[in-house]
Amino acid sequence: MKFLLFTIIFCATLFGETVLKIATYNVENLFDLQKSGHEYSEYIPNTASGWNQKNYKIKLKNIAQVIRDINADIIALQEVESLQALLDLRFTLKQNGLYYQYYSIADKKNTTVKVALLSKLPFIYSKELSVTQSSEYRNILETKFKINNKELYIFTNHWKSKSGPESMRVLSAKTLKKRVMEIGFEKNIILLGDFNSDYEEYIKFKRKRKHNNTDGITGINHILGTINQRDSTKRIKYTKESFYNLWYDTNKEKRYTYIYRGKKEVLDNILISQSLLVNKDISYVSGTISNFDEEYLFKKKSIKRWEISRAKVRKHRGKGYSDHLPLTAKFKIN
To answer: Domain residues for 114?
Structure first.
């Protein structure tokens, strides 16, 4: 660990600064081959659905290809079934020339899928935040880093899907906010992952009333304070005790990580505390937020997701990647 930290410091001295690439990726149901009793029916291993060694290896290889091409220093993952699945992915990455020495997964609760993190850099600790005891809520993973003697907190999220009302996502947001208040809003904090929320979810509410059981209050916008983040001149507005959604730092046509019935949508986000907007010890590099939209991740106008047949017995076809695109951003260590 001391050697790695020395290397980071040396690079910062040699080139004037260290730049970290941070990413988030919903890998779409990365299940292992051990039967736990919590799997979706088509992922029960070695059954007629074809979730077997062959297809598992293809899935690992395909997801590893994407992560290798991103080559982030730290990558948050969603929809990983278990520690075994995470370790198998890590091993596949190592076979393909990308080694993440450090890793963590929020596996204290028996949810069907979980959030995880892979890192080239050591972290001080990694722990889970429980939203509720219900298995409908996935735990949030909190990871604290110290890079060149500068602290950085990363929270990996996977909020309830739109099959549930907004009150469920509000509850996850409140859990996050409570923890941030304990740490301090002035700290370097990144909230990222699959929030199942648009960066302007409060506007979409006007068209999708079935989700609105909170009188218009949204988790991502109201609880985490991501509304009205640009003034009339399009400059960033600094608001105390709020987070800035990096989607505002790229063109509208690039603001998507998901395609539903031909329509581009935002489900994944990277939010940062106000301290990361100013050029202090750690800061966001302007203009670097981007979805990872390489051509091989698309099939015509759709994202080339992992393919499962729609027959009575759903079967894996051994093709595809994930139904989400990854999201990346860069940060400068001064």
So the answer is: 19-333
Give the CATH number for residue 238: 3.60.10.10
DSSP string, 131-149: S-SSTTSPPEEEEEEEETT
Distances (CA, A) of 277 to 55, 181, 330: 43, 19, 12
Please give the Cα distance from 58 to 50 (Å, whole number). 12
Residue 222 lies in a domain: yes
Tell me which long-range contacts 198-206 makes (C-beta under 8 A, separation of at least 24).
Answer: 198/265, 198/266, 198/267, 199/226, 199/245, 199/247, 199/248, 199/255, 199/266, 199/269, 201/166, 202/227, 205/166
pLDDT tens sequence across 281-292: 999 999 999 999
CA separation (Å) from 292 to 44, 103, 246, 251, 296? 30, 22, 15, 14, 11
Helices (H), the chain: 2-15, 53-70, 83-95, 166-183, 201-204
For the ranges 100-114, 190-204, 216-230, 283-297, which has the lowest average pLDDT?
Answer: 216-230
Domain count for the chain, please give it: 1
Asked, for residue 311, whether it belongs to a domain, the answer is: yes
Residue 5 is assigned to a structural domain of this protein: no
Confidence of residue 208 (pLDDT cuts 50, 70, 90): low
